[in-house]
Task: structure prediction
Amino acid sequence: MTRLGCNQAEHFPVGRRELLKVGSMSLLGTGLSDVLRLEAEAVASPGQSFGTAKSVVFIYQSGGPSQHETFDPKPAAPEEYRGEYSTTQTKLPGVNFCEYLPKLAARADRFSIVRTMRQHFNSCHGGCNYLLHTGTTELPRGETNASIVRGQIGSHAWPSISSLVSYGKEDGYSSGLPNAIEIPRLKNMRYPGREGGLLGAQYDRVGIDLAPTCHAPDAGGSCPNCYSHDDPNLDPARAPGPGPNAWWDNSSCRDPSFHLPNPGQVDISSPVLSNRVSLRKQLDTLQRDLDLADKTGQVKKWDMYRQQALDFILASRRKGAANPFDLSQESEATRKLYGHEEWGQGFLVARRLIEAGVRMVQVTLRGWDTHQNAFRDLKNKALPSLDHCLSGFLDDLEQRGLLDETLIVMCGEMGRTPKVQPISPGGKNASGEIFTPGRDHWGHVFPCFYAGGGIQPGRVIGKTDDLGGYPDDVAYSTEDFAATIFHCLGIGPEREFHDPQGRPYRIYRGTPIRALL
Result:
């Protein structure tokens, strides 16, 4: 009998002998994860070859960038659709990008764009975040867009892509750092889909705070021009505050410098990470009752937490060049190549982390939820910053011989409406400034950037309709997005994982985007 809501395609048949074998394992003998690593090696089909990536950098454009104002402009569309910007010719014949991405346009032969990624008609941040970050096309059974943002999905959630990468690339090698790390602001790391889910909390990614704290009460919009203030650099004499003609406390927007991480602020769902003595004492307490611990799995989970905590503390306290977070070790020429700003420094830390052996680094770029003031803010802040930082990142990886072994993927959780529209006509910010229009949420189509690690460069895949609202040919799902990442990392389609109860699931839910490979 098939359980209601259960997808048999995700499960492998398991015989009685295998079940007994799994059931006989204990914390005192061979670990289940060790057996799974040996049994679940990826086996390619005849003639199939995988990518060359050893690690992946996922650049997450939080909020959802507009396809029109990035990689799929529509200059022939009516004004209310094409927006205010012109286009720039790329290095690829007949392919144009937004006019404020000239450096990336000049490097278009070194990466590829899929223009027809699609969310399954989900246009809310919570649901789209879950679907993108888990590489799935359905919310967990019983969850809605409203409920999923409360962060209480728990163990029945599908594992995040980063969790599956961390699991799938376990090979006994330890970099002294967690396998999956997200940077640079903890405040932006609270969204559904980033946890270990069915894999268990020991595979949660680790979020590390490197940037100054953002004090805006609603840090959305095109940062630093978020919903709470307009541009802090226009009149620095104005005092911070919520009243008319005042700023919110946005000092962090004026100070892009990174700090070394504080182990006490690491975002991982384990207790008292900053106190190694306390962790050991609590683990010892659990181990006094092995029968109970064996039933609940707490010893294994706490041991993983303790190891991650101690590894991170030791790594973050390394001196000089051995500390991947210490950007003072980089030359001024390299710092300028990336840019002395939050995004550029995030990319530079990402490069240092993959050099240190981290399997997956996510750089979260807040500021793409451009409902209002979109055209002012994108051309002044987000687009020039991305153009400079990402171009410098590509150049540096290529010069260091790292591009072929590093997969770079960039997208947001959704696109934006083909028609320009204000979220609230006549609405004003905290300073009394009337918002100018932007674009609303749109899950029907959005672009995705791919480079390095087995990706064929210089390709533009998929075509949208004349207004940029829907795919005009093949569309690719978030499941295909995840499968492409796994493929490039050499994680094969027959690979499986097991939940804490020993039930098997396929890692792949979609199909790699073959036109990229």
User: Anything to note?
Assistant: Confidence is low (pLDDT under 50) at residues 1-47, 269-277, 289-299. The domain at 43-260+323-516 is CATH 3.40.720 (Alkaline Phosphatase, subunit A). The two ends are 39 Å apart (CA to CA).
